[in-house]
Amino acid sequence: MYGRRSRFKWFIIIFIPLLVALYLFVDHNLERTLNEIAKSKAQLTGQEIITRAVNEKVALKTEYQDLVVVHKDGEGRIVLIQPNTVKINRMMAETLLHVEAGFAELEKQNFSIPLGQALGSRIFAGYGPGIKVRMLPAGQVSADFIDSFEEAGINQTRHLMSLRVSGRIKVVVPFNDEEIDVKMTVPVAETIVVGQVPQTYMMLKNQGKILGLSAD
Question: What is the average pLDDT value for the chain, to the nearest integer?
Protein backbone atom coordinates (compact mmCIF):
# COMPACT_ATOMS: atom_id res chain seq x y z
CA MET A 1 0.00 0.00 0.00
CA TYR A 2 2.79 2.34 0.97
CA GLY A 3 4.69 1.51 -2.21
CA ARG A 4 1.65 2.29 -4.35
CA ARG A 5 1.18 5.66 -2.65
CA SER A 6 4.87 6.43 -3.06
CA ARG A 7 4.75 5.68 -6.77
CA PHE A 8 1.63 7.81 -7.16
CA LYS A 9 3.33 10.65 -5.30
CA TRP A 10 6.34 10.54 -7.60
CA PHE A 11 4.02 10.33 -10.59
CA ILE A 12 2.29 13.53 -9.46
CA ILE A 13 5.60 15.27 -8.77
CA ILE A 14 6.92 14.47 -12.24
CA PHE A 15 3.72 14.57 -14.30
CA ILE A 16 2.24 17.85 -13.08
CA PRO A 17 5.34 20.00 -13.87
CA LEU A 18 5.61 18.32 -17.28
CA LEU A 19 1.94 19.02 -17.95
CA VAL A 20 2.32 22.66 -16.91
CA ALA A 21 5.45 23.05 -19.05
CA LEU A 22 3.66 21.50 -22.04
CA TYR A 23 0.69 23.82 -21.56
CA LEU A 24 2.91 26.91 -21.37
CA PHE A 25 4.84 25.80 -24.46
CA VAL A 26 1.71 25.17 -26.50
CA ASP A 27 0.04 28.36 -25.25
CA HIS A 28 3.07 30.51 -26.14
CA ASN A 29 3.48 29.01 -29.60
CA LEU A 30 -0.25 29.06 -30.24
CA GLU A 31 -0.56 32.75 -29.38
CA ARG A 32 2.47 33.74 -31.45
CA THR A 33 1.53 31.69 -34.52
CA LEU A 34 -2.13 32.68 -34.29
CA ASN A 35 -1.25 36.39 -34.17
CA GLU A 36 1.12 36.09 -37.13
CA ILE A 37 -1.42 34.26 -39.29
CA ALA A 38 -4.24 36.63 -38.33
CA LYS A 39 -2.18 39.77 -39.02
CA SER A 40 -0.95 38.41 -42.34
CA LYS A 41 -4.51 37.63 -43.44
CA ALA A 42 -5.77 41.05 -42.30
CA GLN A 43 -2.90 42.77 -44.10
CA LEU A 44 -3.74 40.98 -47.33
CA THR A 45 -7.45 41.75 -46.95
CA GLY A 46 -6.75 45.46 -46.39
CA GLN A 47 -4.46 45.65 -49.42
CA GLU A 48 -7.09 43.96 -51.57
CA ILE A 49 -9.69 46.51 -50.46
CA ILE A 50 -7.38 49.41 -51.33
CA THR A 51 -6.35 47.95 -54.69
CA ARG A 52 -9.95 47.18 -55.66
CA ALA A 53 -11.15 50.65 -54.63
CA VAL A 54 -8.47 52.39 -56.71
CA ASN A 55 -8.58 50.11 -59.75
CA GLU A 56 -12.34 49.59 -60.07
CA LYS A 57 -13.67 52.91 -58.79
CA VAL A 58 -11.00 55.44 -59.75
CA ALA A 59 -8.33 54.31 -62.22
CA LEU A 60 -10.77 52.93 -64.80
CA LYS A 61 -12.27 56.36 -65.37
CA THR A 62 -9.07 58.40 -64.99
CA GLU A 63 -6.81 59.40 -67.87
CA TYR A 64 -3.37 60.97 -67.69
CA GLN A 65 -4.58 64.16 -69.33
CA ASP A 66 -7.23 64.48 -66.61
CA LEU A 67 -4.55 64.94 -63.96
CA VAL A 68 -2.10 67.27 -65.68
CA VAL A 69 -2.05 70.20 -68.05
CA VAL A 70 0.73 69.92 -70.64
CA HIS A 71 2.13 73.14 -72.13
CA LYS A 72 4.14 73.07 -75.37
CA ASP A 73 6.15 75.64 -77.27
CA GLY A 74 5.72 76.61 -80.91
CA GLU A 75 7.74 73.59 -82.04
CA GLY A 76 5.64 71.12 -80.07
CA ARG A 77 8.18 70.54 -77.32
CA ILE A 78 6.87 70.16 -73.78
CA VAL A 79 7.91 73.12 -71.67
CA LEU A 80 5.68 72.65 -68.63
CA ILE A 81 3.67 69.85 -67.04
CA GLN A 82 1.29 71.34 -64.50
CA PRO A 83 -0.69 69.18 -62.02
CA ASN A 84 -4.47 69.68 -62.15
CA THR A 85 -4.87 69.98 -58.38
CA VAL A 86 -8.67 70.28 -58.51
CA LYS A 87 -9.13 66.96 -60.28
CA ILE A 88 -6.38 65.29 -58.25
CA ASN A 89 -8.04 66.33 -55.00
CA ARG A 90 -11.40 65.12 -56.26
CA MET A 91 -9.90 61.77 -57.26
CA MET A 92 -8.21 61.37 -53.87
CA ALA A 93 -11.39 62.25 -51.99
CA GLU A 94 -13.34 59.68 -54.02
CA THR A 95 -10.66 57.09 -53.30
CA LEU A 96 -10.91 57.71 -49.57
CA LEU A 97 -14.69 57.25 -49.66
CA HIS A 98 -14.43 53.90 -51.44
CA VAL A 99 -11.61 52.62 -49.22
CA GLU A 100 -13.46 53.64 -46.06
CA ALA A 101 -16.59 51.89 -47.35
CA GLY A 102 -14.55 48.75 -47.91
CA PHE A 103 -12.98 48.94 -44.45
CA ALA A 104 -16.43 49.41 -42.93
CA GLU A 105 -17.36 45.98 -44.33
CA LEU A 106 -14.36 44.29 -42.70
CA GLU A 107 -16.41 42.66 -39.97
CA LYS A 108 -18.34 40.76 -42.63
CA GLN A 109 -15.05 39.17 -43.70
CA ASN A 110 -14.24 37.60 -40.34
CA PHE A 111 -12.47 34.26 -40.70
CA SER A 112 -11.38 31.23 -38.69
CA ILE A 113 -7.97 29.60 -38.37
CA PRO A 114 -7.90 25.82 -37.84
CA LEU A 115 -6.29 24.83 -34.55
CA GLY A 116 -3.79 22.61 -36.35
CA GLN A 117 -2.57 25.55 -38.43
CA ALA A 118 -2.39 27.82 -35.38
CA LEU A 119 -0.21 25.23 -33.65
CA GLY A 120 2.19 25.35 -36.59
CA SER A 121 1.59 21.77 -37.69
CA ARG A 122 2.08 21.05 -41.38
CA ILE A 123 0.36 17.69 -41.19
CA PHE A 124 -2.74 18.86 -39.31
CA ALA A 125 -2.82 22.45 -40.68
CA GLY A 126 -6.37 22.05 -42.00
CA TYR A 127 -7.76 20.17 -39.03
CA GLY A 128 -9.16 21.02 -35.64
CA PRO A 129 -11.77 23.50 -34.43
CA GLY A 130 -11.63 26.97 -35.96
CA ILE A 131 -10.34 29.91 -33.93
CA LYS A 132 -12.39 32.98 -34.85
CA VAL A 133 -10.58 36.15 -35.94
CA ARG A 134 -12.34 39.50 -36.24
CA MET A 135 -11.23 42.52 -38.27
CA LEU A 136 -12.30 46.09 -37.56
CA PRO A 137 -11.35 49.46 -39.08
CA ALA A 138 -9.13 51.53 -36.81
CA GLY A 139 -8.30 55.19 -37.30
CA GLN A 140 -8.38 57.33 -40.41
CA VAL A 141 -7.64 56.40 -44.00
CA SER A 142 -5.20 58.72 -45.77
CA ALA A 143 -3.96 59.06 -49.34
CA ASP A 144 -0.94 60.61 -51.01
CA PHE A 145 -0.63 61.43 -54.68
CA ILE A 146 2.86 60.57 -55.88
CA ASP A 147 4.62 60.33 -59.20
CA SER A 148 7.82 58.95 -60.65
CA PHE A 149 9.92 59.36 -63.76
CA GLU A 150 12.00 56.59 -65.33
CA GLU A 151 13.77 56.04 -68.62
CA ALA A 152 11.62 54.23 -71.18
CA GLY A 153 13.95 54.31 -74.18
CA ILE A 154 16.06 56.69 -76.19
CA ASN A 155 14.92 60.24 -75.41
CA GLN A 156 11.78 58.86 -73.75
CA THR A 157 10.65 59.10 -70.14
CA ARG A 158 7.84 57.18 -68.47
CA HIS A 159 5.78 59.36 -66.15
CA LEU A 160 3.78 57.26 -63.68
CA MET A 161 1.18 58.66 -61.30
CA SER A 162 0.06 56.61 -58.31
CA LEU A 163 -2.03 56.78 -55.17
CA ARG A 164 -0.44 55.65 -51.92
CA VAL A 165 -3.25 54.77 -49.51
CA SER A 166 -2.75 54.04 -45.81
CA GLY A 167 -5.14 52.73 -43.17
CA ARG A 168 -5.25 50.74 -39.95
CA ILE A 169 -7.03 47.50 -39.08
CA LYS A 170 -7.66 46.07 -35.62
CA VAL A 171 -7.14 42.32 -35.53
CA VAL A 172 -9.03 40.63 -32.69
CA VAL A 173 -8.19 37.07 -31.61
CA PRO A 174 -9.15 35.34 -28.34
CA PHE A 175 -7.64 37.20 -25.37
CA ASN A 176 -5.72 39.63 -27.60
CA ASP A 177 -6.14 42.41 -30.14
CA GLU A 178 -3.62 44.40 -32.14
CA GLU A 179 -3.71 47.18 -34.72
CA ILE A 180 -1.73 46.90 -37.94
CA ASP A 181 -0.82 49.43 -40.62
CA VAL A 182 -1.98 48.70 -44.15
CA LYS A 183 -0.29 50.55 -47.01
CA MET A 184 -0.62 50.11 -50.73
CA THR A 185 0.63 52.08 -53.74
CA VAL A 186 -1.57 51.68 -56.82
CA PRO A 187 -0.85 53.21 -60.27
CA VAL A 188 -3.68 55.34 -61.68
CA ALA A 189 -2.28 56.87 -64.88
CA GLU A 190 0.88 57.02 -66.96
CA THR A 191 2.30 58.33 -70.21
CA ILE A 192 5.52 58.41 -72.19
CA VAL A 193 7.12 61.86 -72.44
CA VAL A 194 9.14 62.22 -75.63
CA GLY A 195 12.09 64.59 -75.30
CA GLN A 196 13.49 66.25 -72.22
CA VAL A 197 11.31 66.33 -69.11
CA PRO A 198 10.57 69.96 -68.22
CA GLN A 199 12.67 71.12 -65.29
CA THR A 200 9.65 72.96 -63.85
CA TYR A 201 7.83 69.72 -63.25
CA MET A 202 10.92 67.86 -62.15
CA MET A 203 11.06 70.23 -59.16
CA LEU A 204 7.65 68.91 -58.12
CA LYS A 205 8.76 65.36 -58.80
CA ASN A 206 11.72 65.68 -56.48
CA GLN A 207 9.39 66.37 -53.57
CA GLY A 208 8.20 62.76 -53.83
CA LYS A 209 4.66 63.78 -52.93
CA ILE A 210 2.42 66.41 -54.49
CA LEU A 211 -0.67 66.26 -52.36
CA GLY A 212 -1.98 64.42 -49.34
CA LEU A 213 -5.47 63.94 -47.93
CA SER A 214 -6.93 62.11 -44.97
CA ALA A 215 -10.50 61.23 -44.16
CA ASP A 216 -12.17 63.21 -41.39
Answer: 80
